[in-house]
Amino acid sequence: MPNTEPVPFFIPFTDSTEANAVLDTIQSHWLTSGPRCRKFEEALAAYVGPGVEVVTVNSATAGLHLALDAVGIGPGDEVLLPTLTFTATAEVVRYLGAVPVFVDVDPQTLNIDLAAAEAKVTNKSRAIMPVHFAGLPCNMNELGDLAARHNLHLIEDAAHALSASQGDKRIGAFESAATVFSFYANKTITTGEGGAVATRDPDLAKRMRVMRTHGIDRDVSERFRTSSWQYDVIAPGFKYNMTDIAAAMGIEQLKKADTARDLRHARAVSYLERLADLPLYLPAPGPNEDAHAWHIFPIRVKREAPVSRNELAAAFSKAKIGFSVHYRPLHQMSYWAEKFVSPQDSFPVADEHFDTTLSLPLFPGMTDAQQDRVVEVLRNCLKG
Ligand SMILES: *Cc1c(COP(=O)(O)O)cnc(C)c1O
User: Fold this and answer.
1) Closest ligand 1 atom to the C-alpha of 131?
2) Which of 150, 303, 347, 367 has a CA-to-CA distance to 72 between 20 and 30 Å?
3) Contact at 8 Å (CB) between 166 and 144?
4) CA–CA gap between residue 3 and residue 366 (Å, rounded)
5) Beta strands in the chain (DSSP E)
6) Separation of 60 CA from ligand 1 center, angstroms?
7) Any catalytic annotation for residue 187?
């Protein structure tokens, strides 16, 4: 009997420890931000590296917004970001009335093309928001140099990249203003919905803590404070705090982050080996001294292949194998195209990527049988 079991695109890496931690939290009667959020923040800071402070939030989108607010981005400021990303990276720029400037990506790494970014710097440029695409770290030295040369705040969208490292540092520990992680259901670790911002700047951390809870500043009157109603409001802030229920799950997930990364890495290495002879561009594994988080495994179908990406997608659907496409570039989306792309802009790498890419199933608990099925369908389609 051939194996015809459906293969999901992703399954979260959870077991009874998350369930018990959530149950304990509910039974403790402290449900919103409290001791578990603080413990999760401390554990994340210890994980990311020395000198880092972590602010938990209810999504990476919230974290990106808080980070841009904290560095002072405002109306008319320009923020450079890759077009090959999720719309959240750009929408937070608009929350503040600032202007996203879309940049093409490097064909090998699929990370923001730094030469193209530099060519788009103007006297209104204030920040750059790189995305560590698929979990492959951007070149942090070159990014830091570019940001320093043009006086740009560097805010990393690390939604794919918790557990990635470059050299001896984890993503989150570099000299950027802030690094934002996502704990959405299919990210490298999950709290259902959630996110966190890592920063080495205590003033930025303080501003983000105030703005994540309505602009409420409890420090102002701390010396005199005797009860929770004694606080001040210093700005119209947001409602972005994480619950202790989510943090309880996050504490358990974080303990498994490196194991989960290693399991994804092993599957990625296996894909790279077993698909090497097919007419595909495979994702760059990055330098040996770096750790790729392998959040996703995006392949690209070569033009000379016997099937197109769409035909391959149809074959996956027929075989009940989950897949996704990361991403339709933002400059192709109606809102962004109409308002923030000019006729002389072009993004050939992201356009070509989108036409030919498909992300394969990849998750820590993936079995040999599941991976065998994915490889088999690919080989059948692409071997002619
Ligand atoms: C998932 C994702 C986000 C948003 O994360 P949320 O936690 O869902 O807000 C932002 N940027 C990128 C690149 C993402 O993949």
Assistant:
1) 13
2) 347
3) no
4) 15
5) 53-57, 78-82, 99-103, 125-128, 153-157, 165-166, 169-170, 178-182, 195-199, 216-217, 232-233, 280-281, 297-301, 357-360
6) 5
7) yes
Which residue among the candidates 39, 120, 169, 187 is catalytic per the annotation? 187
Residue (of 93, 63, 96, 67) closest to 242 by Cα position: 63
pLDDT in tens, the chain (384 residues): 677 899 999 999 999 999 999 999 999 999 999 999 999 999 999 999 999 999 999 999 999 999 999 999 999 999 999 999 999 999 999 999 999 999 999 999 999 999 999 999 999 999 999 999 999 999 999 999 999 999 999 999 999 999 999 999 999 999 999 999 999 999 999 999 999 999 999 999 999 999 999 999 987 555 566 677 889 999 999 999 999 999 999 999 999 999 999 999 999 999 999 999 999 999 999 999 999 999 999 999 999 999 999 999 999 999 999 999 999 999 999 999 999 999 999 999 999 999 999 999 999 999 999 999 999 999 999 986
